[in-house]
User: What shape does this take?
Amino acid sequence: MDEDKYDMSIVKYAVLKDSKWEIEQVAPIGQFTQLAIDGNDKPHILYVIEPEEKTIHAYKENNKWIHKEIDPSAGNRRDIDISIDRKTNTLHAIYHDTDAGLIKYYRHGGEGDELIETIDSGLSTEGLGHKGIKLGVGPKNIPQVCLLYTS
Assistant: This one.
């Protein structure tokens, strides 16, 4: 078992308003956080909860944080990244499902527009089989992924 598997922290969000930082709690526990801002300047945070093996998408709606689990069928997720197409506010996320040895892609563009796909398979299931994943979305809403694997 990895020693840091249960190293949870409070997830907080900070924004600079009128030359002062405003900080608020997003979730009582989480780790491996990522942040993206949509076209309406609303924050979207991706974080992981262990040992439950959940990846959560938190976003603000009517000044309240909404928490939605993405891909409940996936196993342990360590590396995650998030990006948002600011024109359409489509959320894109990638994550390493270490239980299945997969790099997976998640897209959510609103009600009824949700997609989960496997990008790559055959990775280590005994920990991280790569050194990092990064996600970018171009102006035509096309996701692009950088994968850094161990040799």
Residues 6 and 51 are 7 Å apart (CA to CA). The first strand starts at residue 9 and ends at 17. The radius of gyration is 16 Å. DSSP finds no helices and eleven strands in the chain.
